Amino acid sequence: MLDFLAQRVAVSIVTFFLITLIVFTGVRMIPGDPARVLAGMDADAAGLEEIRAKYGLNDPIPVQYFRWLTLALRGDLGESIRTREPVVKTVAMKLPITMQLAAFSLLIAIGIAIPAGVFSAVRRNTVWDLLANAVSLCGVSIPSFWLGIMLILFLSVRVHLLPASGFVPFFQDPLANLQRMLMPAFVLGAALAAVLMRQTRNSMIEVMSANYIRTAYSKGLAEWVVIFRHALRNGLIPIVTILGLQMGALMGGAVVTEQIFVVPGFGRLIVEAVFTRDYPLVQGVVLITASSYVLINLLVDVSYSLLNPRIRVKGSSDES
Amino acid sequence: MSHDRGNATSAGNAGPGVTEAAASVHRSRRTWRRAMRRPPAVVGAVVVVVFTAMAVGAPLLATGDPIRTNWSQIRKAPTLAHLFGTDELGRDVFSRVVWGARTSMQAGVLSILLAICVGVPIGLVAGYYRRTIDQVIMRLTDAWLSFPFLILAIGLVTILGPSLTNATVAIGMAATPTYIRLTRGLVLSTAQEDYVQSARALGGGDVRMMLRHILPNIFSALLVQATVSIPGAIIAEAILSFLGLGVQPPTPSWGTMLNTAQQFLETAPWMAWWPGLAIFFLALSFNLAGDGLRDFLDPKDY
């Protein structure tokens, strides 16, 4: 048990260091003087000197990497070129907005996908199953930003049901906040729902053929009891792993969704940073995203091994 | 997974010609019948072919110049002269959608090709040699995979600069670790097979083992993966162009067209319809064809 945990944590730490290495190398690959890259085009000689001193840009590359890494681990990811605010602070301000959006879309995705997937598996090879599969396939194929534009066209431009864009903080006006979050959350959740539904269906089909399910049926239990109490519990296990792995797609999707609906979150921040060539900010956002992805998946795996001893055995044999 | 199609066709040269030819006809008829049992996959494949034809024959199919502006025809609703209407600069939307197919197919197919060319050899080496080199490669792959696909592509475009070529490279590089991982896993299981072991015992060298005995047998699985990752790459190109990080104006791309269309939703909604529908149908057909191909190549299905 402890072995498994230790191994899993060790792998995550190694991954994290490799991520920092990739991000560091990436920024050094931008053509031009690295001090210029990090300080911005309109920095004066003093500004450049300050950056050179902070990151020791005349030192050998490995020394520079360790200096940058130490600062990063202390929570210093440099300053935004545009606003001169610390990168960490800028990200921290935008993060809650994106997290609300992500949480909402997760709720929507789960709310659609799990019931649809279970139903589809239980009524396998019926018209309903076929329909659910078709909808899911369309969900995977539809470009989320086009779905967003179409929703704006029909719900905002044609019938004025929901505001097309903008953001109001939840604590300022909860209703206005929810109205503006509904469409982006649905757009972001739709793609996730499509993937989740397929996985739920597959997983439930597998579980439903297990012997203990047959036993449960032959005991005379009601169908819904067998499905929800017996099958779904085991069927959900792989779903949570998939959910963890899909967090990356969710973060990527947030970039586009926020762009369409003008939600001032983390995703809009990265696009603005790219356009203004705010490299420290891009670097910080990419590093934070990748690290949180590793952390989320570590937590998913660890919480699992605590809940279900079978995973530990399976997980450790999968490794290497 | 383990039947070798390449050998099956080349075997026609050997042996008594007549029976071989008959067997080959029988085989291809059976293959045809099996394929026809999956109408959605067939439809998907046909639509993919149609889009490919559109991409190749764009100069012939387009009814107008996709780039030339016409100030007297600004944002006109669809008519016979302009089937899909005109855009904010008076350009023919139909022609732009047709030329956009070229951009999308190019980005989708070339990026995945790049991912395969880089990922498969690395995966082969990792799975074949195992031990330290495998550990190093896999840890790096894990780290690479921790960057969300789109965020990584955006980061790479930031370094490389926005253009269609760079977007293609960025998408390809972001898709590479999937192929490393898949290839490695397939090699690990294939290398244990008796026929690989016996080829090894006969004194086959490492390169020969990988290229002649392992690669042909994992080919079908790689093909299926390619078919299902191309729609993702097509959508990724559209997203990058939509964000302004891919194809630059005035080159027609479905993503940039949608970006402009969003500003004119109230007055010219047709500008948003067609490029989006095109991406949707192309991605859907690739997905349908890919699903069908997976079932088709699954040996359990015989």
Chart the SSEs and their pairings.
The complex is a heterodimer of chains A (about 325) and B (about 300).
Chain A: H1 2-28, H2 34-39, H3 45-55, H4 61-73, H5 87-122, H6 127-141, H7 144-158, H8 174-208, H9 211-218, H10 223-261, H11 266-275, H12 279-307, H13 309-318
Helix pairs in contact in A: 1-12, 5-6, 5-8, 5-10, 6-8, 7-8, 7-10, 8-10, 9-10, 10-11, 10-12, 11-12, 12-13
Chain B: H1 5-10, H2 17-36, H3 39-56, H4 58-61, H5 93-129, H6 131-145, H7 149-160, H8 164-190, H9 194-201, H10 206-242, H11 254-261, H12 270-297
Question: Which terms would index this structure?
Answer:
heterodimer, A: 320 residues, mainly alpha, 13 helices, 79% helix, globular, B: 302 residues, 12 helices
Helix run count of chain A? 13
Q: Please state the CA-atom Rg of chain B, rounded to the nearest Å.
A: 23 Å
Q: What is the distance, rounded to the nearest whole angstrom, between the alpha carbons of the first and last residues of chain B?
A: 12 Å
Low confidence ranges of chain B? 1-15
Approximate helicity band of chain A: over 70%
Which class of secondary structure composition applies to the elements of chain A? mainly alpha
- Biggest sheet of chain B, in brief? none
Number of helices of chain B: 12
In terms of quaternary structure, the protein is heterodimer
Quantity of strands of chain B, as a count: 0
pLDDT averaged residue by residue of chain B: 82
Write a compact overview of the structure shown.
By secondary structure, chain A is mainly alpha-helical. Chain A has helices at residues 2-28, 34-39, 45-55, 61-73, 87-122, 127-141, 144-158, 174-208, 211-218, 223-261, 266-275, 279-307, 309-318.
Structural notes for this entry:
The complex is a heterodimer of chains A (320) and B (302). Chain A has 320 residues and is an all-alpha fold. In chain A, 79% of the residues lie in helices and 0% in strands. Chain A is built from 13 helices and no strands. Chain A has helices at 2-28, 34-39, 45-55, 61-73, 87-122, 127-141, 144-158, 174-208, 211-218, 223-261, 266-275, 279-307, 309-318. The longest helix of chain A has 39 residues, at 223-261. Chain B contains 12 helices and no strands. Chain A binds chain B through residues 11, 14-15, 18-19, 21-22, 26-27, 29-30, 137-138, 140-143, 145-146, 149-150, 152-153, 157, 247-249, 251-253, 255-256, 259-260, 270-271, 274-275, 277, 279, 282, 285-286, 289-291, 293-294, and chain B through 139-140, 142-144, 146-152, 154-159, 231, 235, 238-239, 242-245, 258, 261-262, 265-266, 269, 272, 275-276, 279-280, 283-284, 287-288, 291.
